[in-house]
Design goal:
Blueprint: H1 19-32, E1 39-40, H2 55-65, H3 80-92, E2 103-106, H4 109-118, E3 125-130, H5 134-144, E4 150-154, E5 160-161, H6 163-171, E6 176-182, H7 194-206, E7 210-214, H8 230-233, E8 239-244, E9 257-262, H9 268-282, H10 289-299, H11 304-327, E10 332-334, E11 342-347, H12 363-372, H13 378-390, E12 392-393, E13 395-396, E14 406-410, H14 416-435
C-alpha cells in the first residue's frame, strides 16, 4: 500500500548495513520466544560490560554539570579550549603541526563519518580495509551508490594490509580520492607498525590521494604493540584523523568525537571540502557541549595515564585468555590482537556447510532459526544457531564487508567467571556445530 504521492526513500538506502546492531533484532525475537540472552558480544560498549567510569572522572564531570556554561552552545567547530588542548597534543608528537582551526567536533565518530561522506563528491571514492567497520563501509557505499571499495587485510600476515593490491586498485581506478585505514583495527585488533603506515602514505603520495585514519583506539595498545599517529607520518599530504573519548574514558554515551585535519593549505579542493564539512556542521549549530568541556581537564589530570595503563593491562589479560581458549578449539584459528578490544575468530577453510546445526531446546526458537538461516552466509548461520542454543550474541565476520567466514567477539566483560564461561561455551559450541 502506498499513500504518499511521491516516493521519499533514498536510492541507496539499502546500503546502510550495521550487522553489529542488526543481529540484536534477531536476539530480541528469540528472547520473546523464551530464549535467555546470556552474553552480548556484539557491541564495543565498555560500560554495558561492567566497566565503571573512575570516580575522579565522574567528579570532574559532575562539577562541570553544575556550571552554567556547559548548558550552552560551543563554537561550530567545538569548544576553543578543547581544540587548543588537542592541537597541542598533536604538535607535541613532532609531526604535522596543526592549529585549533584544524579540529572539528562531532556528536561521536558516527556523526563525523556521515558528514565526511555526505559532503564528498559522489564520484570520489574512498578505498577501505576488508574486514571493514560497517559505519565506514556503509557510508562510503551509500555516498557513492556502489559497493564499498576495499583492499584486503591478510590474516596469515597478522591482518596487515595487502599493499600491492591497494596500490594496483588505486593505480587503475582514478575515481579513488582517498585511502581509509583503521588503526588499531576493528574488527581485527591489528596495530599497524610505523613502517606500514609510512608505506600507505607513500602510496597515497604517489597517486595524489588523501589519507583518512580512524584512530579512535589509538591509545589502546598492548602485547608489545607500537605504532604512530597519522600526524607523525603524513608529511605534507592532505589527511584526516578521527578520534574520540567513547573508548578511552570510557564514555560512549557522551557521543563526542573529533577530526584532526592535516595540510588544508596543500590543496585548494581539499580546503574547500573541509570548509563544506564545517558549513554542514554549522546547520546543526554545534556538537554537545558537556563532553568537550571535560577533555582538557580529564586528559591533563595526573591520574589519567594510570587509568589508561590499568585498562590496557586488563585488555591484554583478557585477549590472551581468549586466544588460549580458541587456539585449542578445533576448526577455528585466531590472530592475537594488539589493540582495541575486539578479536575475530576465523573458521578453518572448508569446515562449514549448510547442514550443520546446534541443539535448540525451545521448539519455537528452533523453527525461527531454521527459517532465518536459509540463504545466509555460513558464518551468520553459525551465529544464529549460537544465539538460539546458548544465548550468546556474536557478529559474523561477513557483516564486516568480508568474504572470510568467522565472527567477532569483544574482550570487555569484567566478570571473570562469566567471561571465561562465554569463551568456553562458544568453543564447545563450535566443535559441536562442526561435528553435526
Amino acid at each position: 500500500m502506498r499513500y504518499l504521492r511521491r516516493g521519499i526513500v533514498h536510492l541507496d538506502a539499502g546500503r546502510f548495513k550495521y550487522e553489529i546492531r542488526e543481529i540484536v533484532a534477531v536476539a530480541e525475537t528469540l528472547r520473546a520466544l523464551g530464549v535467555e540472552m546470556k552474553s552480548w558480544e556484539n557491541i564495543g560498549d565498555p560500560v554495558h560490560k561492567g566497566e565503571a567510569l573512575p570516580e575522579w572522572i565522574k567528579e570532574i564531570i559532575g562539577k562541570l554539570v553544575a556550571t552554567d556554561e556547559t548548558y550552552g552552545y560551543t563554537a561550530t567547530q567545538g569548544l576553543l579550549e578543547a581544540r587548543e588542548f588537542l592541537s597541542r597534543q598533536v604538535n607535541a608528537r613532532g609531526g604535522c603541526q596543526i592549529t585549533p582551526k584544524d579540529i572539528i567536533f562531532f556528536n561521536g565518530l558516527g556523526d563525523a563519518v556521515a558528514r565526511l561522506f555526505g559532503t564528498m563528491k559522489r564520484e570520489a571514492r574512498i578505498i577501505g580495509p576488508s574486514p571493514a567497520y560497517p559505519t565506514h563501509s556503509s557510508a562510503e557505499a551509500a555516498h557513492s551508490g556502489y559497493e564499498h571499495l576495499t583492499y584486503d587485510l591478510v590474516p596469515e600476515k597478522g591482518w596487515m594490509p595487502n599493499l600491492e593490491e591497494l596500490e594496483n586498485k588505486i593505480r587503475y581506478n582514478d575515481t579513488i580520492a582517498g585511502i581509509l585505514l583503521i588503526n588499531p583495527g576493528n574488527p581485527t585488533g591489528t596495530v599497524y607498525p610505523r613502517d606500514i603506515l609510512e608505506k600507505i602514505v607513500a602510496i597515497a603520495r604517489r597517486y595524489r590521494v588523501m589519507v583518512i585514519a580512524d584512530e579512535i583506539y589509538c591509545n589502546i595498545l598492548y602485547n608489545g604493540a607500537q605504532t604512530a599517529h597519522l600526524s607523525e607520518v603524513i608529511g605534507d599530504l592532505p589527511g584526516i584523523a578521527l578520534k574520540g573519548i567513547s573508548k578511552e574514558y570510557p564514555w560512549p554515551g557522551g557521543r563526542c568525537g573529533w577530526i584532526e585535519v592535516f595540510n588544508q593549505d596543500r590543496d585548494q579542493d581539499f580546503a574547500e571540502y573541509i570548509t563544506s564539512v564545517i558549513n554542514a556542521k554549522m546547520l546543526e549549530v554545534c556538537s554537545t557541549s558537556l563532553p568537550q568541556h571535560s577533555i582538557p581537564i580529564v586528559m591533563s589530570d595526573p591520574r589519567y595515564p594510570g587509568h589508561m595503563e590499568h585498562r590496557l593491562r586488563a585488555f591484554e589479560h583478557r585477549v590472551n585468555e581468549a586466544v588460549d581458549i580458541f587456539e585449542a578449539t578445533k576448526g577455528v584459528h585466531v590472530i592475537r590482537p594488539q589493540g582495541a578490544f575486539y578479536m575475530p575468530v576465523l573458521f578453518d577453510e572448508g569446515v562449514l556447510n549448510d547442514r550443520q546445526t546446534l541443539p535448540i531446546a525451545n521448539p519455537e526458537a528452533r523453527a525461527f532459526v531454521e527459517e532465518k538461516v536459509q540463504g545466509v552466509p555460513a558464518d551468520k548461520r553459525f551465529a544464529y544457531y549460537l544465539l538460539a542454543a546458548e544465548g550468546i550474541c556474536v557478529v559474523p565476520l561477513t557483516g564486516f564487508c568480508s568474504e572470510r567466514f568467522g565472527f567477532r567477539v569483544t574482550v570487555l566483560e569484567v566478570d571473570d567467571e562469566k567471561r571465561v564461561w562465554t569463551w568456553r561455551t562458544i568453543s564447545k559450541a563450535i566443535e559441536t556445530y562442526l561435528a553435526s
